[in-house]
Amino acid sequence: MVSVILDGLARAISLILAGDPVLVEITLRSLAISGFATIAASLWSIPLGALIGLGKFRGRVLLRGAFNVLLGVPTVTLGLVLYLLVSRSGPLGFLRLLYTPTAIILGQAVLITPIIVSFVANTLEAVDPDVRNLALTLGSTETEAVLMVVNESLEGVLLSVTAGFNRAIAELGIALMVGGNIRGVTRMLTTYIALETNRGEVAIGIAFAVILLAIVAAVNLSVNFLQRRLRR
Amino acid sequence: MNRNTTIIIAAAIIGAAALGGIYILWPRANAGDTTLVVSTTTSLYDTGILDRIEEVFEADHDIDLYFISVGTGLAITHAQRGDADMILVHAPSKELSFLEDGYGANRKIVAYNFFSIVGPEGDPAGIYDMTPNDALATLVEKGRAGEAIWVSRGDDSGTHTKEKVLWGSAGFDASALRDEGWYREAGSGMGKTLQIAEELEAYTLSDMGTYLKYHTDELISLDVQVGAGEALINVYSALALDPDYNDDANFDDATTFTEFLASSEGQAIFETYGVDTYGTALFYPAVELLESNPDSTTAVWIANAAFFDGSECPEEYRVGETDLYN
Quick one: average pLDDT of A29-56? Predict the structure, then answer.
């Protein structure tokens, strides 16, 4: 067990040092797909989170609860539903999205929407209500007041987005179901790990898992750095 | 550095990432190339042979092969839903209904090998070299006495389909055995199932390719207890989608690729793949054998296991001009 992991670590290091073309290719593809998914999801999830966190309307608690439940949807289920949607006999089949990176981007964006929405709602709720009241008293419009609160808890929002990215780059079910793990087109870090493990190439599986973790760590460290900057 | 500068820098990083992403994801297939989606079985894909076939085929053809590796059951579902242009599978009974239901056309048998019943070193149930029927009957007996465990794929794959046939011919109903404690269902691919059998010191049915790979890499120590023989033959076929059923599917390229698999160039890949690594081929080419030596023992076994009405593809399922059946 230990020797297999050490073997994998050694393999990971030699692959990185050699600049292995397969490694570079699928790492860049994973980063691009999950990065896009995170940007797309943020575009609608941050406003939605703000609405749920700060809004006052009927059904707000229910909506919040719904997003919390969606946090628990297994990726393979979501992958299956998306497959049925974009399959050529499915309702979106005419778009020809199946087995394209675009399909994975859309799927991952849907997957991490509840994460960003819930986390953003939470972090905004935690901001002292006085901040918003103060802004309103000082003559801000409602929108300006909300922006002020968001600005006040920018670190929390950043953390929500990072959590979404971490989830996206580490998921397997969607990438496999709607991407198909096609070599050179939709092969990503997680699908490659699954493939090599099935093939019995355990050391390569471990090596790529180490690389995946390194990427997640690097992204999170950069965000941390950014947060510290923001705090000044 | 103030807050706004930081936000601008962050925005610039995201923008650069977005541009880089577009560059990476933009399709860069050679202009004019068409794509052929082949839904296939894990027992072929996991051996790596399809990577080799893809390499050789794409060198000479302006066709991009997209292999989607799933179980035979799901591969057929993919094709029925229009998500694959052809299938490469190993479950004759399912292939027959695929043809009969009007989905498939131009079936071609391209390769074969043998399934094996594998079990722990020392063979505690004592089934070594028995016929598959006797071996399975013995395993049921020992299993009920608490002296043996059987691990079934349980995932409706080609191998699982074969397993159910074998239980049937040994006089047992696989769906009834499921309720017995010694009969475990893995619900996983072949590699995972072998590892489960290894952990439980159990018996299981395996395709030769996956078994050799795992055994050579010392991931499992299970031994072959019942090997090559008529009942355990494993036949791989290529089937295109009938253009009458789905004229959207890439029928022309499917024909081209099937012809390549049946050509001497394609058959040579089956004959040699894995010899360097495992000391034996993982698959055997079937085309030449069936054409020029149809009375040989193995050819008869293939015919018994995988011919429909005395043919690998009866006339009514042949579409278009092709020299696949000359």
Answer: 92
Q: What is the pLDDT of residue A224?
A: 86
Average pLDDT, chain B: 89
Partner-chain contact B6 A230, CB within 8 Å? yes
Q: How many CB atoms are located within 10 Å of the residue A81 CB?
A: 17
Quote the CA–CA distance of A8 and A208 in Å, as a whole number.
Answer: 8
Distance (Å) from the alpha carbon of B246 to chain A's nearest alpha carbon: 11
Position B180 confidence tier, pLDDT thresholds 50, 70, 90 = very high
Closest by Cα among B163, B154, B157 to B70? B157
Contact B24 A35 (CB under 8 A): no
> Which string of b and e fits A180-202 if b means at least 16 CB within 10 Å?
bbbbebbbbbbbbbbbbbbbbbb
Residue B251: exposure state from Cβ atoms within 10 A (0-12, 13-18, ≥19): buried
Residue B20 has pLDDT above 80, yes or no: no
CB of A33 less than 8 A from some CB of B: yes
Q: How confident is the model at residue A232 (pLDDT cuts 50, 70, 90)?
A: low
- Is residue A47 less than 8 Å (CB to CB) from chain B? no
Asked if A199 and B213 come within 8 Å (Cβ–Cβ), the reply is yes
Q: Is B250 on the interface with A (CB under 8 A)?
A: no
Q: Take residue B12 and report the two structure tokens written for it.
A: 């610039």
Please name the residue that has the structure tokens 């050699």. Answer: A18
pLDDT band with cut points at 50, 70 and 90 for residue A104 = very high
B201 pLDDT more than 90: yes
- pTM for this predicted structure: 0.87
Nearest to B242 by CA among B73, B103, B67: B103
Given a cut of 80, whether residue B23 has pLDDT beyond it is: no
For residue A57, what are the contacts with CB-CB under 8 A and spacing of at least 6? none
| CA dihedral angle for residue A81, residue A82, residue A86, residue A87, rounded to 10 degrees | -50
Closest CA to B269 of B64, B60, B52, B101: B52
Place of tokens 């769906």: B175
| B108: β partners | B238
Per-residue pLDDT reduced to its tens digit, B240-288: 999 988 888 899 999 999 999 999 999 999 999 989 988 888 999 999 9
Alpha-helical runs (H) found in B86-131: 92-100
The ipTM (two decimal places) reads 0.83
Contact criterion met (CB below 8 Å) for A167 and A111: yes
Q: In this structure, are residues B152 and B202 in contact, taking their beta carbons and an 8 Å threshold?
A: no
Contact B285, B298 (CB under 8 A): no
Contacts of B2 in chain A (CB under 8 A): 232
Instruction: Write down the pLDDT at residue A226.
Output: 82
- In chain B, residues with a C-beta closer than 8 Å to the C-beta of A205 are none
